[in-house]
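Review form for a predicted model. The reviewer records the input and the model, then writes brief findings.
Reviewer: anonymous (R2)
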Amino acid sequence: MAPTTKAPPMIDYTVVSAHRDLLGEVPIWCERTASLWWIDVLRSALHHLDTATGQITTATTQGGRIGSIALREQGGLLVANSEGIDFFDPGTGTQQPFAGYGRLGPAQRFNDGRVDRQGRFWVGSMHEEFLPQGTLFRVDTDGTITAIFGDIIVPNGIAFSPDSRTLYFADTRRFSMWSFDFDAATGMISNRTAFSDTKGKPGRPDGSAVDSEGFIWNAEYAGGQIVRYAPNGRIDRTIDLPMSHPTSLCFGGPDLQTLFITSGSYTLSPDALAAEPLAGAVIAIHAGVKGLPEPRFGG
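Model under review:
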């Protein structure tokens, strides 16, 4: 009789939002308001969860597909979309171009973005037809936009080590993650080094978050799991999820030990959607380790 294998147990989770996002992305925890923000890229939707009331509200943003958001030190959000980078005021629903507003080329849009601890916004662009024409940009607080490097298919996984000496970056369509030496004072990177890859596996590296111990948590799109990496790239552990296409994650909650995970549903067939009721949902798990506060854009 052939030996049988037992699938690893799935971690306990809580459903934060059962709404079926087409491409839920970039969850951000706001400590000031104890609330969670995330987006649906393909619907240009901006979701907000007030944890005090449990109420979820949704706003529709302008400027085409929304790729990422960031908290602002002055209040409100920074929004990166198909047309450029805007300020968004959740209180009034108004949206206005940022001082460093820059339009991308045809069929391009901004995708994943993250603020460093010096208040600068790092964001990647991509071509909608997955051509290697994307670029990683640094957006300074005065509105200056600097191109850092190109030849990117789908930029993702932007994250910074706790000591601000390392930048992590993933290209989802290349199945690869890299680390860079990061000069926090100048905002420049160097010494691109292979960090991990998922070639030959179903999962692709998507959004990332770094915990207080300096380990990197990455959502594996189409892999149905998240992976915790040590700073040297060693896999520390994997966690199976109730959705096949997790997209990104962030630490939040009162003790920053809750991991909020977004997901997508648009690539699934009708049969797969029926079999996967949490595709496109947001869930939360207990990470067992504390995260780091989300930096705010200083402009």
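Findings: The longest strand covers residues 188-197.
Further findings: Residues 161 and 214 are 6 Å apart (CA to CA).
Recommendation: see findings above.
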